[in-house]
Amino acid sequence: AKKILNSSNTYVQGSVYDLRAEKLGQFDIVLYLGVFYHLKHPMAAWNRIREVLKPDGTMFYEGAILDWAYKVDKPLEAFKDQIDAVKELPITYFAVGNYATSWSNWYIPTGKCVNDWLLASGFHEIEMGFIENSSRAYGSAKLDLKADLIEHGMSNANAKATGDQDAKYIPEVE
Prior knowledge:
- Helices cover 29% and strands 24% of the residues.
- It has helices at 2-5, 21-24, 42-52, 80-86, 111-120, 145-152, 156-162; strands spanning 27-33, 53-64, 92-94, 107-109, 123-131, 136-143.
- The chain is globular.
- By secondary structure, it is α+β, with helices and mostly antiparallel strands.
- A four-stranded mixed sheet has the order 1-2-6-5. Strands 3-4 form a two-stranded antiparallel sheet.
């Protein structure tokens, strides 16, 4: 497709934790599909995506949520009433072992939790839809740099330039 479209895009394979604007630049659109529930540090990942998104850029996301997890994970069928009772809470289920037959699913958040993770990571204008039969959420979120700078008082670049480690609000993950 790159040759046919004469595109200057470059395919980069790596970890979401390694995303850095200094290394990769910034993007108008970021696709983050089917990933957040596989990560041991989902908040750090949202923050990394935020860093590589241009001001007023848009991120599109999709992933597993807890809201109807009993429809895709047989052992959770016994907890249907409890899951239904917490759908409106910003909580996550930590899956030790398998969730939906995969060993690599770690955090299965409620839709409300995904929304709040996005807000806490500096995203705004959050749109979210649900696919109930597969217990998935999808949507988009915009980065509002002006609101973010007002909220945090300075950018990461300013924090780095001044050496103010307390002002650095995107956590590092080793």
